[in-house]
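Field log, afternoon session.

UNIT: design team B
ACTIVITY: writing a sequence onto a fixed backbone
BACKBONE:
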């Protein structure tokens, strides 16, 4: 029961992500695409330290560790 709810929650999240990305790619949309959001985060720096790149790398590491490692 709990497993089915977790899988359903991930599927709903994936569907919402796809919906927002689709809405962002329409003509004249003011919603940024995933690529635009990642580019904005990657440009963030504090002095010479690329904090955005480190944060994005840490996020992907966390995703991989929790969902892809077995």
């Amino acid at each position: 029961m709990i497993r089915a709810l977790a899988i359903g929650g991930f599927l709903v999240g994936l569907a919402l992500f796809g919906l927002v990305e689709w809405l962002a790619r329409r003509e004249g949309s003011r919603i940024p695409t995933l690529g635009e959001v990642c580019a904005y985060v990657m440009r963030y720096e504090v002095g010479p330290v690329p904090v955005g790149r480190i944060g994005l790398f840490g996020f992907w590491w966390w995703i991989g560790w929790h969902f892809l490692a077995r």
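LOG NOTE: The helical segments are 2-24, 34-42, 51-68.
NEXT ACTIVITY: expression trials, pending approval
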